[in-house]
Structure formats: C-alpha cells, structure tokens
Amino acid sequence: MSDISVTIIDRHGHPHQVEAPTDMNMNLMELVRAYELAPEGTIGVCGGMAMCASCQCYVLSPHALPGKSDEEEAMLSEAFYVRDASRLGCQIHLTQELNGLEVELAPEGS
Amino acid sequence: MIKTDILIIGAGPTGLFAVFEAGLLQLKCHLIDALPQPGGQLAEIYPKKPIYDIPGFPEVLAGDLVDNLMAQIAPFQPGFTLGERADTIEPQEDGTFIVTTSEGTRHQAPVVAIAGGLGSFEPRKPELDRLEDFEDRGVTYMIREPEAYRGKRVVIAGGGDSALDWSIYLAEVAREVTLIHRRTEFRGALDSVEKVQQLKNEGKIRLITPAEVVGLEGADRLEAIRVHRGGLDGEELTLETDAFIPLFGLSPKLGPIAKWGLEIEKNAIKVDNTLDYQTNIPGIYAIGDVNTYPGKLKLILCGFHEATLMCQSAYRRIYPDKRYVMKYTTVGGIHGFDGSKKEAPKAVVKSID
Domain of A68? Predict the structure, then answer.
C-alpha cells in the first residue's frame, strides 16, 4: 500500500495537491479535514453518515468511482448547488485506484 | 425568571450528563435547547444509528443512549426550555448571568455551561430571489401552528420525512396540498411514503416530480411560485398558492453564541483544557463538541469527561468557602432531589461457624 495523490480545489478556487494514505480507512471528506482545506464546522457536519451535504464536491477527473448508495442519492437530491458530477466526499473511500483524483469542494451551505 | 445553579445550553449527551455530575454535588440544572426534544444530534439526526465507542457499551443506538441518559439524570430533576434558542447573555453585578431565549424566556444562574455541539439547528434555505422578502408573508420553514393553514393552498418542497409527514397532516387541514421534489423517489419511513402515495391516488395531495421551485411571485405577500418540472427539456409552470414551505432539513449554526464575547477559533469556543473548560469569561464554560483546545476530539466520551470537570469547578465557584472531595457513587450512592435513593447493598458481616 502506498500513498496516493489527490488534488482538491478549495471553496476559494485554490488547488491543493495532497498525499493521502490508502490504509487508514479514510474518505475524501476526512482528507479535506486532515489538511484543513475547509474550516472545521463547515465540512463533515454529520460525521460522515451521508446525512448532510456539507462535504459535497464535484469530481473533475475521469476516475471511475464506485456508484452512489441510496442514501447518498437521496441526500444529494435535497442538497443545493448539485451538478451531475456531485458526490458526497464522505462516501468516497480513498483507494489505490483514485490516484490522481481531482475534485472541487461545493460552496458552503450546500 | 427561571433560576438554577448551572444553566446548560444544549441538551445533547454532554449537556445531559452534566446534570448527573452536578446532581452528585447537589447542584441543580436547567437546560435550553433549540430542538423540541432532548438528545441533540443523537435524537435529531441519527437516533437509529449504532455508536461503538461509549465505554462499557459494545454497541448502543444513539436514541437509546439518550433514553439512558434521561433515566440516569431523572433523580436530579433537571428543568428544560425546549424549542427555544439561547439568544442573549447579560452578566449581572452579583456575578450571575441572565440568558434570554428567542421566545423571550429568561433564565438566571451563577454558572453557564455551553454544551451547544455544532450550534443550534437552523432550517436550510433554498437559493431563491426575494425569499427573505416573503418570510412570514407566505414562506415558512417550520410549521408551528398547522391550523393556520386551514382552508389555504399550501406548497411543500422536500423529499425527506418532514416533507412527507407534513404533506400527510396538512392534506386533512388545507384546501390544497402540493408536494414538490427534485426526484420521484422519497426518503422516509415506509408507511409515510405509502400514505402519500395513497393520498395522491385519492387526489388529496398533488405531486409534482421531478421538479424544483425556481421563483417566487407576489406583491406584499407570496401569491404564486414558479416551478420547473422535468429535466433539461422540461417546462416551467406557475402555481398560485398561499403558502410555500421548503423543508430541506436543518443545518447547525453557532448562531447568537458567537456574539457573546467568547473567544472563537475554528467555529468553536476556546477553553482552558488544563483546568476546567472555562472560557475567557469567568463563570461561562464550554463543554463537548462546541469547545476547542489543543488536541480536541469531538467525541461523546470526551464530552462526558469535560462535563465532569466543569461541574467540580462550578461547585468551587458557587461555594468558594466549602471544602469538598469527590466521592465515588459506589460509596456515596445517589441521592435524588426527588427524595429517591440508590446505594450499594451493604456487605453481610457474619461469622462462619
């Protein structure tokens, strides 16, 4: 297992290329928090249960991500600023296949 | 005026447990919470989810943990002001504080413990032009008095439990109920979904899906909404209505507490973690997810610890001249304010022949 590289564009439009471990059972929302790319309290509010949309992001790279669960679909259907490329960061597990992933955080309050 | 020893803002697990620790010190507590029921996030967001890191509980449902805490603190007869948000705090000359809620309820105590979690839960508002102009003039985010909608035309938007449940309820009250949702699927308890289906079939609820409200119209108050139905090649229609109720869930906001003069960092209140979780204002403490200090972890079990130390400090603040040492419940038992008593059974002392 080795680290992967992920590019995250923060809510101000600044890109950050960060290293992410794939052996810590981490998801994308947690990665954003680990690097403090969005202020605490504005991301991962529900803790990662797909019960809020504070970790919504737009997937910019053509990676084949695992499909959305019913819970994620339902939450995104109630969220704001949703696009076709929207996902909940907490539902994207960091795996080797996601090396080079590029995402943009949706606006606060989504 | 409600008077108490420790005024706790937030009735989540940390706030509830603080009542217990205060009770062991014979201190009375009163809790304020913006939600209509105690339990905080555990009751509001994830009552049916299991928690695995409560010491001594290999697994416990969030809702059950709240029930257990309520049972544990019952002997100490906490007071509750529910469904009201703590808005202002006024320090008094005698060192006490007066906290007033959104509804104007006043509370006075020598110690205030903020156990506010992520803040108070506020409705999530859709991005619509002139939305704020129509607030309380046809647009509401919470239904307080369903009777106000008798004989009216109501549009509800949303796809979760509250949108479903209120559509069902208002179908019997309002002249006309329209439910609008972005998708054809709804997320809610199975029987609510089935009931809405049945009411739709009976013509008592008009369902517009997949659709989205895209505009509001009216002079002084809301008169109509514009709805976009279908996908990209969909159509736009205008719907006359007396009320529009978007129910898109709640999101926590630190809210008025942020203006109480407390030191805030990372959307949380800075406290002295080397001692007693007191804030920069003596007499005001912050415990649980709402506070921050080096190494802070937002865990229920950490909130319990913080609540315990806060109570010890509160006791010394309220009774500076009294000497006191912590007593184990196994030794001291529980003496409720309601006269109830719990203690360890005495060992049998008897000779064996």
Answer: 4-105
| Residue B223 shares a structural domain with residue B319 | no
Q: Given an 8 Å threshold on Cβ–Cβ distance, is A40 in contact with B268?
A: yes
Give the model confidence (pLDDT) of B59-91 as tens digits.
999 999 999 999 999 999 999 999 899 999 999
Residues B188 and B278 in one domain: no
For residue A28, what are the CA distances in angstroms to A37, A81, A106, B296, B299? 11, 19, 13, 21, 20
Ordered DSSP codes for B315-340:
HHHH-TT-------HHHH-EE-TTS-
Domain boundary residue, one of B248, B272, B304: B248
In whole angstroms, what is the distance from residue B84 CA to residue B99 CA? 12
Residues of chain A with Cβ-Cβ distance to B249 below 8 Å are 52, 78
Chain A contact present for B131, CB below 8 A: no
The CATH number of the domain holding residue A8 is: 3.10.20.30
Residues B287 and B269 in one domain: yes
Residue B349 lies in a domain: no
Work out how many domains chain A is built from and give that number: 1
Nearest CA in chain B to A33: B266
What count of CB pairs under 8 Å joins A to B?
57
Instruction: Report CA torsion sign: B297, B298, B302, B306.
Output: positive
Domain shared by B148 and B230, yes or no? yes
Chain B partners within 8 Å of A109 (Cβ): 124, 251
The rounded distance, in Å, linking the Cα atoms of A53 and A57 is: 9
**Residues B237 and B258 reside in one and the same domain:** no
- Rg of chain A over Cα atoms, rounded to whole angstroms, equals 13
User: For B104-151, how does the pLDDT look when each residue is reduced to its tens digit (9 = 90+)?
Assistant: 999 999 999 999 998 888 888 888 999 999 999 999 998 878 899 999
- What residues make up the domain containing B157? 132-248
Cross-chain CB nearest to B266 (options A40, A49, A80) = A40
- CATH (domain of B338): 3.50.50.60
Residue B327, chain A, CB below 8 Å: the answer is no
Q: Over chain A (110 residues), what is each successive 10-residue block's mean pLDDT?
A: 91 96 93 93 88 94 92 87 94 95 92
- Answer yes or no: do A46 and B46 touch at CB < 8 A: yes
Which two three-digit tokens encode residue B250? Answer: 């709640």
Contact A41 B181 (CB under 8 A): no
Number of folded domains that form chain B: 2
Q: Does B227 reside within a domain? A: yes
Q: Is residue B352 part of a domain?
A: no
Other CB atoms within 10 Å distance of the CB of residue B54:
17
ipTM beyond cut 0.90 = no
